[in-house]
Write a structure and sequence with these properties.
By secondary structure, this protein is of the alpha/beta class. The chain is built from 21 helices and 19 strands. The strands form 4 sheets. It has a 5-stranded parallel β-sheet, sandwiched between helices. β15 (501-503) and β16 (509-516) form a beta hairpin. α12 crosses α15 and α13 crosses α15 (308-341). The model has no long low-confidence stretch (mean pLDDT 93).
């Protein structure tokens, strides 16, 4: 698929020169800092050396005092407390963090994860009934609940208070809960609107610590869970998320919790540095697999475990769930892909909306992501559950998926989410009309360029400038993720040194050795799935590349190489 290269314009020249001088770095690195909102030495110091003391006061969040007071009241009255959360990574890490912290100080506490297939997303009537049947009078709901208006009324009738901690967009009416913590509330002036659900739970526990004069070090000991939620829920790694991800990764790499340590071991990551990408592709999917295939509570059982032997056994079970998930994901993706690829009418659309009653509910979100990557357009994948069509939606860069779904809200039983990912439920008979109206909204509102994958390039770079000092500073920009993506560079008019070749079992990858004009420096690189262009590479014509800079360790020797994202041949006749 053709890709667009979008090179960011260079930032303010005076600011770049200033940063380059005071930090003793080259202009490219200074420009990267300015792009990330850094304009002076103090801001650079805060960026490169995040501090937990820079986290905002939790009581700046609307309803924080009410939330903390309600938990203190429960402690004082020896009430039973239930920690309730969604079955995905953000939900299960949220529950694990709040349960693990509160259980250090209180024993009348339990947790509950709704069953994906019996109860669906968010707070359920069954969950409220469970609380009532077990004498629970306070529920702390995490990563869900901000739109559960009717269910809060039902809970009130049962004599149950809720403290809601959510980060999704609220509806027009807030639930009648004891407290609603959500930075996205229109009336909430909290400075950081990008927290994960686990991040909101962390802030609640931080407020609880300060009110009770507890040691916050006990809470910081759980920050690895927050990092897993930040990476897996794909929230921007800026502001507080950057600080929490930084220290969470530090904890994951030095002394992770017992449950996370067992996942790291079974994923084969012991003994090497764990990054945000490792969480996204290895840790997160295993935690998610429990709720997709079996029960999300299994993930919490593992994450709160204090017994390494039991944790090892549980992590094996979760790993088996992940293998099952991968098989289902693979087969359904192929089936859905072929439906589109073989149907000219579906191919011509600006969106994808597919329904199959037999598709596994636990993997349709993954399938939606895969199809979005393949066809690069807003995608909704639906299956049947309890007589309704239920599904997951994913978007492309810059297109507000939530607004597109909201425009069809009269056809839906419920929906929720944000700009790039959402969930929805509707009557099966409404699917054709939903397909029509969703497609119409996308067609009317999406820009042509949003339907072409874009590679955003931070800066042009000469290959000769890639050296150990450059990379040492570049590493300090981590953790990378949304809002602070791994910098991508472009180099123009590079040549094959004469030794580039195809590699891999099917010879479908390129191992590059390239040079620039007027430079003797040879740079190595790898270009996955680009073996078909080897003849163009070997033609002696110059070409342009865009890439990231990576370390490559081979036989104990570490070198720098370029990881090529795309290659263009603008100089060929």
């Amino acid at each position: 698929m053709e890709k667009r290269w979008s090179i960011k314009p260079e930032s303010d020249d005076e600011t770049i020169n200033h940063l380059s001088e005071v930090l003793h770095i080259n202009r490219v690195l200074a420009n990267l800092l300015v792009q990330r909102g850094v304009s002076n030495y103090d801001e650079a110091k805060a960026f490169f050396r995040p501090k937990l003391t820079d986290l905002h006061n939790p009581f700046l969040m609307k309803d924080m005092e009410e939330a903390v007071h309600r938990i203190v009241k429960a402690f004082d009255n020896n009430e039973k407390i239930l920690i309730y959360g969604d079955y995905d990574v953000d939900g299960t890490t949220s529950v694990s963090l709040v349960y693990s912290f509160l259980s250090l100080h209180y024993n009348q506490i339990d947790y509950y994860i709704p069953n994906r297939y019996e109860e669906g997303y968010g707070i359920s009537y069954k969950g409220i009934d469970f609380a009532a049947d077990n004498g629970i009078t306070l529920v702390i709901a995490l990563d869900c609940g901000i739109k559960a208006v009717e269910k809060m009324d039902y809970a009130r009738e049962k004599g149950i208070d809720f403290v809601i901690c959510d980060h999704h967009t609220p509806g027009d009416v807030l639930p009648n809960a004891a407290a609603c913590l959500d930075p996205k509330r229109p009336d909430c002036n909290y400075p950081d609107k990008n927290l994960s659900g686990c991040g909101v739970g962390f802030k609640l526990m931080q407020g609880f610590c300060r009110y009770n004069d507890y040691k916050e070090s006990q809470l910081y000991d759980l920050v690895d869970l927050v990092a897993v939620s930040i990476a897996s829920d794909i929230v921007p790694i800026v502001g507080e998320n950057r600080i929490l991800a930084y220290y969470g990764l530090e904890k994951l790499n030095s002394n992770p919790g017992i449950g996370l340590k067992s996942i790291i071991k079974i994923a084969g990551m012991e003994g090497r540095e764990i990054t945000i990408s490792d969480i996204v592709f290895k840790i997160g999917p295993r935690i998610n697999a429990a709720g997709r295939i079996d029960a999300g509570s299994d993930a919490v059982d593992l994450l709160v475990s204090r017994d390494s032997g039991n944790a090892g056994l549980m992590s094996k079970d979760i790993d088996e769930c992940n293998e099952t998930r991968k098989d289902l994901d693979r087969s359904i993706t192929v089936e859905a892909h072929d439906l589109i690829a073989t149907n000219p009418e579906l191919l011509a659309k600006k969106s994808t909306v597919l329904y199959n009653k037999d598709w596994h509910k636990g993997v349709i979100g993954i399938v939606a992501s895969r199809l979005t990557e393949s066809f690069y357009r807003p995608t909704v994948i639906l299956t049947e559950s309890k007589g309704f069509a239920t599904g997951s939606a994913r978007s492309v860069d810059g297109f507000d998926l939530y607004k597109a779904i909201e425009s069809c809200s009269d056809l839906l039983e419920n929906f929720g989410g944000h700009m790039y990912a959402a969930g929805l439920t509707l009557k099966i008979e409404n699917i054709p009309e939903f397909q029509r109206r969703f497609e119409q909204f996308v067609e009317d509102n999406i820009l042509p360029e949003q339907l072409i994958p874009q590679i955003e390039i931070d800066s042009k770079l000469h290959l000769k400038d890639i050296n150990s000092k450059f990379y040492r500073i570049l590493k300090q920009f981590r953790p990378f993720g949304p809002g602070n993506m791994k910098p991508a560079f472009s180099s123009e008019r590079v040549f094959d040194y004469g030794t580039s070749k195809c590699v891999g079992k099917d010879r479908d990858h390129l191992k590059l050795e390239i040079i620039e004009e007027h430079s003797a420096a040879i740079k190595q690189g790898i270009a996955f799935s680009m073996g078909s262009i080897i003849d163009s590479i070997k033609s002696n014509d110059p070409f342009d590349i865009c890439y990231t800079v990576e370390e490559n360790v081979y036989n104990g020797v570490t070198t720098l190489q370029v990881m090529v994202k795309d290659i263009k041949f603008p100089y060929s006749e």
